[in-house]
Specification:
The chain is built from one helix and eight strands; from the N terminus they run αββββββββ. The chain starts with 13 loop residues before the first helix and ends with a strand.
Length: 264
């Protein structure tokens, strides 16, 4: 932007700065530039019968003051015209924002409430008494042993009679007669074990290698019915039956089937 020289400054550039300033509105020959003269206002319309003259157009802006003449070599030249007032400088920048004030101190936290007391633990219940143990079952009586005979003075005295036998407690065997040939048995049955009211348990084993034995509890034994005892160790047991046990066997071979019995 063109400007006027500053007195006391711009040494060596004073003429160039002034020429740039003057060239804004003056030609090189000193005449005003057309752009520096204000436009003439429009002529008002003519009224009927020679009406009044329209208003005068606005006066153009005053031309710039000519540049100060050069100082003559002989005497001091006339004082140059006062330059036009410089443009008002731009508004200065807004100062930096002040620092933020300190944050207030946080208030104290209230004291924690008291914890309630723990409830009492309930009384432990009593343990019930242990049930009574049932009485042991009676043991079967042992058979009496006969008294030993007296020894005579001269010769040996006679042996006393044997006491009565106790209930069966040892193993015994019984022979079952062989049945007739065929699937349907037509012969009779044989008592394998007599009834015993003191019986606690009984075991029957078929010790025959080829005969199948059929048992009947209290009734007539017949092939292909009742309780089957296979050859070579077929067995049956009971803890509740105390009656008579009858039996018979098949007839694949001659002879009899051997049954081993244990009764307690």
């Amino acid at each position: 932007m063109a400007r006027l020289p500053v007195p006391g400054s711009d040494d060596g550039n004073w003429g160039n700065i002034l020429n740039n300033f003057l060239s804004v509105s003056l030609n090189t020959d000193g005449s005003l530039k057309g752009s520096a003269i204000g436009a003439t206002g429009p002529t008002g319309p003519i009224g009927p019968g020679g009406g009044a003259t329209g208003p005068t157009g606005a006066t153009g802006p005053t031309g710039f003051t000519g540049a100060q003449g050069y100082t003559g070599s002989g005497s001091t030249g006339a004082t140059g015209a006062t330059g036009i007032q410089g443009f008002t400088g731009a508004q200065g920048f807004t100062g930096a924002q002040g620092t933020q004030g300190f944050t207030g101190v946080t208030g104290f936290t209230g004291a924690q409430g008291f914890t309630g007391a723990q409830g009492f633990t309930g009384v432990t219940g009593f343990t019930g008494p242990t049930g009574f143990t049932g009485p042991a079952g009676p043991t079967g009586p042992t058979g009496f042993t006969g008294a030993q005979g007296y020894t005579g003075s001269g010769s040996t005295g006679a042996t006393g009679s044997q006491g009565p036998a106790g209930p069966p407690t040892a193993a015994s065997t019984a022979n079952v007669p062989q049945g007739a040939t065929g699937v349907s048995y037509t012969g009779g049955s044989t008592t394998v074990l007599a009834s015993n009211s003191l019986r606690k348990q009984v075991w029957l084993y078929n010790d025959t290698g080829s005969e199948t034995v059929y048992l009947s509890l209290g009734g007539t034994a017949a092939n292909d019915s009742g309780i089957r005892l296979n050859p070579n160790g077929g067995s049956w047991t009971s803890q509740v039956y105390t009656g008579q046990i009858n039996g018979t066997c098949t007839t694949t071979n001659t002879g009899t089937a051997t049954i081993t019995i244990v009764e307690v």
